[in-house]
């Protein structure tokens, strides 16, 4: 039977607490999963089952075993495609960060669809007997760091980490024009554009709060290199906000008016990530694409 087993050793500075508190508050496991582990006696502490009100201590070794019945959707069922384009930035037994190529959709939208980043990652994981589980997406023309789970057990903690702003992404982009200020915050609500279903716009239909922070990295006579950190995650948020300021992203096919051969210069550059079922975090950098440097040379 398929199952997923996770192990962890509590650090030396860990303060003793009930197992239930560790699982729900520190490791962000939903209560229904904790209940399933308890009911199936699939929580071992130092090799023995312990009830969830049992105190765990520094140095204790925990083993959690999950089964398909624990999840509504235990298998991702993504058709594998060629793994040739998969560039791994970071990998553990439970998660993967890849450097997404521009022009590749993040995930398939219909059964049997191939050619997306997730299809490529499925091919990469297939020899290991693993499947990819999507956690967030990047627009098709956006490149850079993309976080993917390798089993369903780490999906809820990572989704919660994203919701609690513990996963922090910094984007890099070239925009048209020179920014006057070195840094700032854009707080403009974003909704649907009724004139073009592909687009979003400030104060559009069903607008939601959207907050974007920016820091200027470099200026030329006609363009600005900007680092972007999102506080919210609306569709096309970076593209819409920068366009609303009069600084559309270079190569944006929807919000700028560049030559068709110019790719969108938006890159998921840095990623800070708390590792699930641990107390550690990692910081990753996705190499800046050659297209960014080529554009700089022409300015």
From TrEMBL:
Tell me the active site: 139
Q: Where are the transmembrane segments?
A: none
Q: Where is the Pseudouridine synthase RsuA/RluA-like domain?
A: 94-244
Give one Pfam hit by family name: PseudoU_synth_2
UniProt keyword list:
Isomerase
Q: Which GO terms describe its molecular function?
A: catalytic activity, acting on RNA; pseudouridine synthase activity; RNA binding
**EC number, as in UniProt:** 5.4.99.-
| InterPro entries listed in its UniProt record | PsdUridine_synth_cat_dom_sf, PsdUridine_synth_RluA-like_CS, PsdUridine_synth_RluC/D, PsdUridine_synth_RsuA/RluA, RluA_PseudoU_synthase
Biological role: Responsible for synthesis of pseudouridine from uracil.
Q: What is this protein called?
A: Pseudouridine synthase
Organism, as annotated: Secundilactobacillus similis DSM 23365 = JCM 2765
């Amino acid at each position: 039977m398929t199952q997923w087993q996770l192990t962890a050793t509590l650090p030396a500075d860990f303060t003793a607490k009930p197992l239930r508190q560790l699982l729900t508050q520190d490791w962000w496991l939903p209560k229904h999963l904790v209940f399933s582990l308890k009911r199936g006696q699939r929580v071992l502490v130092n090799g023995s089952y312990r009830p969830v009100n049992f105190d765990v201590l520094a140095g204790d070794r925990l083993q959690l075993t999950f089964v398909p019945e624990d999840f509504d959707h235990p298998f991702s069922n993504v058709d594998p495609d060629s793994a040739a384009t998969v560039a791994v930035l970071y990998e553990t037994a439970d998660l993967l960060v890849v450097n997404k190529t521009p022009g590749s959709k993040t995930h398939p939208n219909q059964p049997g669809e191939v050619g997306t980043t997730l299809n490529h990652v499925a091919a990469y994981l297939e020899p290991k007997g693993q499947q990819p589980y999507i956690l967030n997406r990047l627009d098709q023309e956006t490149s850079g760091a993309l976080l993917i789970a390798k089993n369903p057990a780490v999906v809820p903690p990572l989704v919660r980490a994203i919701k609690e702003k513990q996963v922090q992404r910094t984007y890099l982009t070239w925009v048209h024009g020179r920014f006057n200020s070195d840094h700032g915050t854009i707080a403009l609500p974003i909704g649907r554009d009724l004139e073009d279903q592909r687009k979003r716009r400030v104060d559009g239909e069903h607008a939601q709060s959207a907050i974007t922070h920016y820091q200027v990295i470099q200026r030329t006579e006609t363009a600005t290199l900007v680092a972007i950190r999102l506080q919210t995650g609306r569709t096309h948020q970076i593209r819409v906000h920068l366009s609303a300021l009069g600084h559309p992203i270079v190569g944006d096919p929807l919000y700028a008016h560049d030559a068709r051969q110019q790719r969108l210069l938006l890159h998921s550059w840095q990623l800070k990530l708390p590792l699930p079922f641990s107390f550690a975090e990692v910081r990753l950098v996705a190499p800046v694409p050659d297209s960014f440097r080529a554009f700089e040379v022409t300015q």
